[in-house]
Amino acid sequence: MKRLKNILFISNGEFRDDAALEHALHLAKTNKTRLSVAEVIEELPRDMLDLAGSMKIDGLQELMVRDSLKELREYIARVKPKEMRVPAKILVGTSFLEIIREVLRKKHRLVMIDAERKGEFGELLFGSTTMHLMRKCPCPVWVVKPTESRRYMRIVAAVDPDPFDAARDALNSRIMELASRLAQTEESRLHVVHAWSLPTRKILLSRNVPQQEVEWMSEETERVHRARVEALVEKFAAKLPHTKVHIVEGDAGTLIPQLATEVGADLIVMGTVSRTGIAGFLIGNSAERVLRHVDCSVLAVKPEGFETPVTLGEPDAEQD
């Protein structure tokens, strides 16, 4: 699969999860592609470096990189099959910036990242680094929830086709392409969900439009949306003839997480869309709300031609 070539897996040094790396290794092996693993450590502040120098401890940052790289390589070696070569790298600086710069340098086509955690029980959190990547990373971002399962048995594709918006239609095709290929690879059930609404319902009723006419308009709106979704799904029906389509009325940010919970979804494939006119700064209000309420892995797909606002820094020394 072209868009799953050259994968970058970002390890969480504080909470390394074997199952998350195993998912990345499985994906790389299945797609016969390169997998690299990186970890980000903070750049030490100047005053700390000066203090270390006064104690005759030179190269403290370099020592941290060396120790972190050793631990990262040991973690990879413990999890990966012996026959696979998986390069490891330590990035230094602000997490999301250095990850995106690595993507630009090495032309990665997919970023997989351990879900950030919070709280006493380590519940799932789409934290600062994850949200920055979803907004600004130029390639798809797969946030991997910690799990004991090595397979995704149920995949949800959240779509919103619009024949009057070529960019949106292209994005929905990308979502379906990725979701259907993954469902084939994982031998999983694919659920396609689309949320629609009649935003003028309240206004029409307040203007004394007969209830029957409003209901007719609502039914016609649903029919149009259903036809669009079914036409999109039909393009991929030969690969997955048992795909289940869900057309639901209401707010996407609320209903998509509800459906994901109902079907026991392991993964949601969804699009990120900027409506601000500023490249790479927003992922869309519905997508933001979905992420606040889901408790499964998420693969976020960018529109074709998306440009990151992040620029490359100075070239760094290779560690491989």
Describe this structure in words.
- The protein has 320 residues and is an alpha/beta fold.
- Helix content is 42%, strand content 19%.
- The chain has ten helices and twelve strands.
- The chain has helices at residues 18-31, 46-54, 60-79, 95-106, 128-136, 166-186, 201-206, 211-234, 252-263, 285-293, and strands spanning 7-10, 35-41, 88-92, 110-114, 116-118, 123-125, 141-144, 154-158, 189-196, 244-249, 267-271, 297-301.
- A ten-stranded mixed β-sheet has the order 3-2-1-4-7-12-11-8-9-10, with helices on both faces. Strands 5-6 form a two-stranded antiparallel sheet.
- The protein starts with 6 loop residues before the first strand and ends in a 19-residue tail after the last strand.
- 34% of the residues are buried.
